[in-house]
Design a protein that fits this description.
The complex is a heterodimer of chains A (567) and B (200). With 567 residues, chain A is mainly α. Chain A is built from 19 helices and four strands. Chain B is α+β, with helices and mostly antiparallel strands. In chain B, 44% of the residues lie in helices and 11% in strands. Chain B has a three-stranded antiparallel sheet with strand order 5-7-6. The longest helix of chain B is centred in the first third of the chain and has 30 residues. Classes of the chains: A mainly alpha (567), B alpha+beta (200).
């Protein structure tokens, strides 16, 4: 670890925190339906969309209608991606002549993109046409991100409203998020990325003759426009197979730094939206503090482990850390930081191969996802995931003092706690359950690229990433098989929707309750005690759930590595 | 609930058209106009022919060139399409080795590469980036130490004074961005092009 390395980490955190207030202010205005500086241009477009689609923007929805609208929207998104992939050979914008994608891979990819996971069982440049990348994947990058944010805002309204039946209008929230938040930022962001060296072209792959006279086919494409929303919307699905490690998908140290900021920007700002909407910004900062504590702990461990390297490298006298699977322009610190950020948020883009990380360096990304990606988290998903843990922490605190717990003026009762527990428990059920199935099926075990405990970690990582809708991978695992395509798709589906539906039920039941003013017996939820309590609950629940699985994978591998055991 | 079906179809189609077609196509047009070189892939031409991209590494085996890092990319086996064969720096199929810290395959590969490099330049310790594959398999850079390590071999193969080669390496060493972000590095293709110029 170096001083300049830590300086990069601190600078990163400072910029993200500095963006929280302005972005939070802007997004609050957008979701309250107020005018913004972009309204003169965008308002006519927005009204046109509502007029054609028959949306009455004044009419709000009950939580069930809101949820059903969201589900219908996803059914349509699924059909578009699946259809495009199956038919891509017949459609335009296909200069590399890609043929139709197989049924199980198309199914997996369609589920993957509507759930904001962007798991890559496909290899971008070797499988997909430009049309699928744009119309299929880029569009769903926008819409699954907009959906996540809309749902978080709906849950916030549940907390901030008093005795109301409705929690907003899904169509309005999604449209406003796309038009006012995501698109304008992406337009500027795309140009920045192209300036840094990212291609943005519809031309053919380039045929080059190298200096030594060999032929090299260089894949290009409309990369920058997709990468902008891939990062901002915490989607993470790469244009290229190597994702943000590919020099075209992340050309410079600066493009890397800005990409890291854009992963956290909206998710962190949503904590401020929460604070503003419930009438006390400090409530938002307290939640961000919980996230910050967990984040920095993770960064420290991964950076330390990667800088230390492996026993193989040490035995040969090689210094400079574990560079296997990392790019020279990023080095140890920017690769470690990126890995922790991308799994803390449910982004899943990678600028280094997590499979080649040291055992402990790779364990932190795994833990981040197993905690439910609540450290900033996916845009929207992170905030509603964190609020579920907050409900639980408040409930535990209430039990300790024997008083009905309250949070931001709402009584937390049996129904709320049941919904929170349902959402929290369904995740481990999927990733532990499917991992257990996979390791006893010989055909599934054959997909592992590494032997020994590392192979087990590959499988555990895959199901954790899918269930958490992250999309990053221990890429050695051959996931493009019938078994993994279907089981990973089911993990992504359950991980997304079995979290969303209880969260929306919670929003509905909270919105219908009366707001009560704080009294002398109310636990203050803006101070250090509250932050410590939530961190404690997260670690206890997380630790009890997945520690045994970690012991079989990265922990035993670390001990083996220290004993110089190879597999 | 039935009245949600119309927006479910129309909002989806309209937003898809905006974000999936209008946005990428407009960005392609604008970016192509403002940054034409980058938008096409930062291609390098020599005598009217494309010899590569400034951002994409290529394979160098000849002693007279600086070598990039080992690459783990592959290509479909021409004999059997269900299998793949090793194809270093295949810029149409990026990827890393994905070998973990306790992998015997990885340990053997590194040992072999270290032994080879020690034979070439026994006086200096081997820089780690020269024996590890990158994440993309297309890393265009090596560390400045990785370049200096190879000076001896390159100078000998080209009959150039070592000092001159060292000078070229120094000229092509890029520092951290603003002295802060990223790591110092040397672009291998740019350095080799400069070498060819210097040897003329």
């Amino acid at each position: 670890m170096t001083v300049i390395g830590w300086f990069q980490i601190i600078l990163y955190c400072a910029i993200v925190v500095a963006l929280v207030k302005p972005l939070g202010w802007y997004m609050t205005r957008v979701f309250n339906g107020e005018a913004t500086f972009l309204s003169p241009v965008l308002r006519p477009v927005e009204r046109g969309l509502y007029w054609i689609s028959g949306v009455d923007e004044k009419r709000e929805q009950h939580w069930l209608t809101y949820t059903v609208s969201m589900l219908l929207f996803h059914v349509g998104g699924f059909l578009i991606i699946y259809g495009l992939m199956r038919l891509q050979a017949l459609l335009p914008f296909n200069p590399a002549g890609q043929s139709a994608v197989a049924q199980d891979l198309s199914f997996n990819t369609a589920i993957s993109f509507i759930t904001n996971t962007n798991w890559q069982n496909y290899g971008g440049e070797s499988t997909l046409s430009y049309l699928v990348q744009m119309l299929g994947l880029t569009h769903q990058n926008f819409l699954s991100a907009a959906t996540g944010i809309a749902l978080a805002v709906a849950l916030i309204r549940g907390f901030s409203r008093s005795s109301m039946r409705t929690i907003g209008n899904f169509w309005v929230d999604v449209t406003r998020c796309t038009l006012y938040v995501l698109l304008p930022i992406c337009i500027v962001y795309t140009l920045f990325l192209v300036w840094q060296g990212m291609p943005q072209t519809l031309g053919d792959y380039v045929e080059a003759t190298t200096l030594e006279g060999a032929k090299q086919t260089i894949a290009v494409g409309p990369v920058a426009s997709q990468v902008a929303i891939k990062m901002l919307g915490t989607n993470g699905g790469g244009f290229f197979n190597a994702n943000a490690a590919h020099p075209f998908e992340n050309p410079t140290a600066l493009s890397n730094f800005v990409q890291m900021i854009s992963i956290f920007a909206l998710g962190a700002a949503l904590t401020n939206v929460f604070g503003r909407m419930v009438g006390n910004e400090r409530q938002g900062w307290a939640i961000l503090a919980v996230m910050g504590v967990l984040f920095l702990a993770g960064v420290a461990v991964t950076y330390w482990a990667e800088a230390n390297g492996t026993s193989t490298l040490a035995s040969l006298g090689l210094t400079g850390g574990n560079m296997e699977g990392k790019e020279v322009r990023f080095g140890i610190v920017a690769s470690s930081l990126f890995a922790v950020i991308t799994t803390a948020a449910s982004c899943g883009a990678v600028n280094a191969m997590h499979d080649s990380f040291t055992a402990l360096g790779g364990m932190i990304p795994l833990i981040n996802m197993q905690l439910g990606e609540i450290i900033v988290g996916g845009v929207g998903a992170g905030l509603y995931g964190m609020l579920l843990f907050v409900v639980l922490a408040i409930f535990v605190a209430g039990l300790m003092v024997g008083r009905t717990p309250e949070y931001v003026g709402k009584k937390i009762e049996a129904r709320e706690v049941k919904m929170a527990m349902l959402a929290i428990l369904v995740l481990p059920l999927m990733y532990l359950g499917w991992t257990a199935v996979a390791v006893v099926l010989p055909s599934a075990v054959a997909s592992m690229a590494n032997a020994g405990p590392h192979g087990f970690t590959e499988v555990l990582y895959a199901f954790t990433s899918a269930t958490g809708n992250n999309g990053s991978a221990f890429g050695g695992l051959t996931g493009n098989t019938f078994f993994y395509n279907l089981t990973l798709a089911s993990s992504m589906f359950v991980g997304r929707f079995f979290m969303i539906v209880p969260a929306m039920a919670l929003a509905g039941s909270l919105a219908s309750k009366k707001s009560i003013p704080p009294s002398a017996g109310t636990l203050p939820t803006t101070g250090g005690l509250f932050v410590g309590l939530v961190v404690g609950v997260i670690l206890i629940i997380g630790g009890l759930t997945f520690f045994p699985a970690l012991a079989l994978g990265p922990i035993v591998e670390h001990l083996a590595m220290n004993a110089s055991t190879l597999f | 609930m039935l009245r949600e079906i119309r927006p479910a179809i129309l909002i989806l189609l309209l937003l898809t058209a905006i974000t999936g077609l209008a946005y990428p196509l407009a960005m392609t047009a604008i970016a192509g106009a403002i940054f034409p070189k980058q938008a096409q892939g930062s291609l390098i031409e020599k005598d009217g022919k494309v010899i590569g991209s400034a951002l994409i590494g290529q394979e160098f085996k000849d002693d007279k060139y600086f070598h990039g890092r080992p690459s783990a990319t592959s290509a479909p086996d021409p004999a059997d399409s269900t299998k793949t064969v090793s194809a270093p720096y295949n810029a149409a199929n990026s990827g890393g080795s994905n070998l973990g810290p306790t992998s015997k395959v990885l340990a053997d590969r590194i040992k072999e590469d270290v032994a080879k490099l020690r034979g070439e330049n026994p006086s200096v310790s081997v820089p780690v980036d020269l024996v590890t594959t990158s994440g993309s398999g297309l890393d265009p850079d090596i560390s400045p130490e990785g370049a200096l390590f190879q000076v001896l071999r390159v100078a000998k193969a080209r009959n150039l004074p070592e000092a001159r080669v060292r000078e070229l390496v120094a000229e092509h060493t890029q520092g951290r961005m603003a002295g802060l972000l990223g790591e110092p590095r040397v672009n291998v293709l740019a350095l080799n092009l400069a070498l060819d110029e210097a040897s003329k």
